[in-house]
Each structure stands twice: as structure tokens, then as C-alpha cells.
Amino acid sequence: MTGNTTARTQAVELGERLREVAAWNVRLHLAKEELEQQALCEATGVTKATISARMNLDAAWDLNAIAAAAVTLGMPPAELLDDTLYDIVNNDDTNTNEGKGASLVAALTSMLLARHIAGRCNPLKTKGSCRITMMATGANRYPHERV
Predict the structure, then answer these.
(1) Do 61 and 22 touch, CB atoms closer than 8 A?
(2) 133-to-32, 101, 111, 120 alpha-carbon distances in Å
(3) Could you say which of 22, 86, 90, 99 would form a disulfide bridge with 95 (CB–CB 3.0 to 4.6 Å)?
(4) Per-residue CA distances from 84 to 29, 45, 106 (Å)
(5) Would you tell me how many other CB atoms lie within 10 Å of the CB of residue 20?
(6) What burial class does residue 21 get, using C-beta atoms within 10 Å of its C-beta: 0-12 exposed, 13-18 middle, 19+ buried?
(7) Who contacts 24 (Cβ-Cβ below 8 Å, separation ≥6)?
(8) How far apart are CA 7 and CA 13, in angstroms?
């Protein structure tokens, strides 16, 4: 009986982690694609309250919701459950709030390069006519300039 209890506990913990990772990845990719949660509502046929509950971990992501989000974001569903970036940004104890941005940029850069090598994207192309950049306020100043 102990083995079943342990397996059940592990399954529940894994399920919670997958919900967290899916919500985090969906939020990240919605921002990257400059989409609102409304795009997911239309793709899944559910209300904004339901999408919001999933994003806030108050409701579960089912396979249909994962599939609809993946189609909306133009990516394989497995990428929404990939915890690589999530772990780098959220589980690195050496990261302060300021340092998390650098970890995210490094992780995204390595992910883009891996996708480029696999022939799945061109990291030199940008969406629209402007470059997408992530930087902290004041990061564009030279070190000798006073803020």
C-alpha cells in the first residue's frame, strides 16, 4: 500500500508542477508573441475567467487547452510543458530579482540557437518591424554616465 501512496503523491506533485510550468510558459509565449489571453479564449472556446483561472493555477490545464494554446502560439504542445526555462529562472537560488532577467535572456538565447540548429526558427528575424529587446531600465547607458 505504501508504494501506491508514494506513486499517488508523486503524481499529484508532478501534476501541480506541470500546471505551474504550463501557465508560466503560456504567459511567456503570449508576451513574446504580443498576444492577449483573449486569443486563448477564442482558440479554446472558453471564457476569459477560465483562462485566467488556468494562468493563476486555480484551474487545471487539460490536454485540449494545452493543444489550443500550442496551436495559438505556433509551437509543439510539449514545449508548453518543458520546464527548462522555468527552472533556470525560478529555481536558481543565486538569482536575485535583478539577476533573473539575465538568466532568462541567456536561456532564451540558447533555446533560440538550439531551435535554429534544428531548423525550426531563424533567431535573426524579428517580429514586425522593430527588434524585440529585454533590458533593465538604464541598461542602455554607458557605465560612466550618471543615472
Answers:
(1) yes
(2) 10, 12, 16, 21
(3) 99
(4) 14, 29, 12
(5) 15
(6) buried
(7) 86, 90
(8) 10
- Could you report the per-residue pLDDT of 12-25, keeping only the tens digit for each? 999 999 999 999 99
Q: What is the pLDDT of residues 124-145, one digit of tens each?
A: 554 443 334 444 444 444 444 4
CA 86 to chain centre: 7
Q: Cα–Cα distance between 69 and 65 in angstroms, integer?
A: 6
Q: Which three cell numbers stand for residue 3?
A: 508504494
Grid cell, residue 12, equals: 499529484
Judge contact between 70 and 77, C-beta under 8 A: yes
| Cell (9 digits) for 4 | 501506491
Answering whether pTM is above 0.70, one says: no
